[in-house]
Each structure stands twice: as C-alpha cells, then as structure tokens.
Design a protein that fits this description.
It is a single chain. The chain has 299 residues and is an alpha+beta fold. Helix content is 22%, strand content 26%. The protein contains 4 helices and 15 strands. A hairpin with a 2-residue loop joins β2 and β3.
Length: 299
C-alpha cells in the first residue's frame, strides 16, 4: 500500500494546494507558497482598515468645593471663634484674664468658658450653674443698682465669695431703643455645694436655682456699663445670625458684666449674648461660617 507523504500544516502549504509527493515537488510548492504569501501580505497591507481614531480623554474636572462645615455645638465649657476680630486673644493667669487695658480678676464659676475679648464673636456652651437671682421691670440701668444689694446680702449671709460675671437676662429687648419688658439679675455660685436651691431665708425676692446648659453667641464689649451698649452688641449678633441662617436665636438676650465699681468705666469688660441653636431646616442660601476654630486663652 502506497503511503501518502506527511502533510505540513502551515499556511503556505495550504495556499499551494495541499501536500507534495516528492522533494522537488515539495521545493516547488514551498517556493510557490512563499510567493503567494508575499502577495497575500501585500494585498492585506493595501486593504487593511485603519484602526478608528481614539478621541483624547477629556481632562478631569475639579470637584466642586464642599460646603463649609458648620461648627459643632461646643461642648460645655468650650469656645469656638466664629466672627468679629479673629486675631483677638486673651491672656490667662490662673483665674484672671487680661485683654489690653481690660481685665477680670474675680473667679468665674467652675466649668465656665473663658470670656470673649472685646470685638470678637464666639460661640460657646455654658454648663449648668447654681445662681441667686432677682427680677424686676424698672429701667434696666437702674435695675442693676436695685438688684445688686439684695443679691449681695444673700451671698454675705451664706458666706459665699463673689464670682464674676454678674448676669443680666433681658426680656423683650429690641433694636428700637425701648427698654426691655423686664430683667433678671443673678449672682453665680462658684460650685453648687455652696448653698441650697429655693427662696432666700430672709428675702423671698431672691431665688436660688440651677440653670440648664445653654449654647450662646457672644460678642465681647468694653466700656461703660449701660443697656444701650448691650443692645448694640445684640444687633451685631443678630446680623451674624442673618448671615448664618443654619443657626437661630433660642431665647432672650443677656449680658455678662465682669467688673465691679473699682474698675474705670472705659476699661470695663462685658459681653452681649444670645442663646442659639441649630435651625431644624437650614435656609437654602446659607453655608457654615468659615475658619471656625476652637479658642483657648494664652497662658
């Protein structure tokens, strides 16, 4: 039986017509295949479809800047600078505070945040404090004198040292120039253990109670103590709230008076404050105050 030669499975052989039976035939087939392959390669090169052009990738667009983050509600006893003079810094030495010609040399209640320097606007949270208070409706500037002596006699009877500040809460204060509807004046206990809550044993006008923690917007002030100066400070705080609608007022205005009569009027340190809270549904136009940062007193 005749044996067929081995077929080489290469493209030139297939294009030449299959297997060859002899060496000469195989050589002719190989030569013919090479010529055919060359022609095929040239034809392929002539008819090759160019690859589609690839468009240059569009440069990545920078991400939109994130909205400024709202400062978190400060923890009790802490402060965040949110406006006014951002560079204003107080100096603390023990329980005393200094800013220019202004100073506070009477201790604050335990856990109270540092005072706000004149010209700065801070957000801060006050812890609960025990305080003796008296209320009235006469002109607030006169009320500071009317309320002082009943409160002073109260702490004297209980042998409680004076603290700073004297707090004044104003009911119904407005920018119209009219006097508030009423006021409450308070002396603060440094710690709750110094006396019991309830009415004073000799003067029922004086009540001792524990306040609730409160977050406030505060502006530092310097100069003669009068309700008009506090009203101007409250107007600046209301403007801040208008510019930062994520926050809203949550109570009546109040004032902190840090100095007694021994201090020159021009050097007296005070604060105007508004209790605030985050607004439940922020206004669409608002963004959080930028650059808000914790504030610490220089020691």
């Amino acid at each position: 039986m005749q044996t067929r030669p081995f077929c080489v499975l290469l493209l030139p052989v297939v294009l030449a017509g299959g297997c060859a039976g002899s060496a000469s035939e195989q050589a002719r087939a190989n030569k013919s295949g090479e010529q055919t392959a060359s022609a095929a390669t040239q034809a392929t090169a002539q008819t090759a479809v160019p690859a589609p052009a690839v468009a240059a990738a569009e440069p990545a667009r920078p991400a939109a800047p994130a909205a400024a983050a709202l400062p978190a509600v400060p923890a009790p006893g802490t402060t965040v600078r949110v406006g006014g003079d951002a560079s204003a810094a107080i100096r603390q030495e023990g329980d005393n505070y200094f800013f220019g010609s202004a100073s506070i040399t009477t201790p604050l209640p335990a856990g109270y945040p540092a005072p706000t320097p004149p010209g700065a606007i801070d957000m801060k949270t006050y812890p609960s404090v025990r305080r003796a208070q008296i209320s009235g409706s006469v002109t607030p500037d006169l009320g500071m004198n009317v309320g002082f002596f009943p409160l002073f006699n109260h702490i004297k009877r209980r042998e409680i040292a004076m603290t700073s500040p004297v707090e004044m809460d104003y009911t119904g204060m407005s920018n119209s120039g009219d006097n508030p509807d009423g006021w409450t004046m308070a002396f603060l206990y440094r710690t709750p253990e110094l006396g019991d809550v309830g009415a004073d044993e000799r003067d029922e006008r004086v009540k001792v109670l524990d306040t609730q923690p409160v977050t406030v917007l505060a502006i530092g002030l310097q100069g003669f103590y009068r309700v008009g100066r506090i009203r101007d400070g409250v107007a600046a705080l209301e403007k801040w709230l208008a510019d930062n609608p994520q926050w809203e007022a949550a109570g009546d205005a109040r004032a902190f008076y840090y100095n007694g009569p021994e201090k020159r009027n021009r050097d007296k340190w005070a604060e105007a404050q508004l209790p605030i809270r985050p607004r439940a549904t922020p206004a669409a136009s608002g963004t959080g105050p930028s650059g808000a940062a914790p504030v610490t007193a220089a020691r």
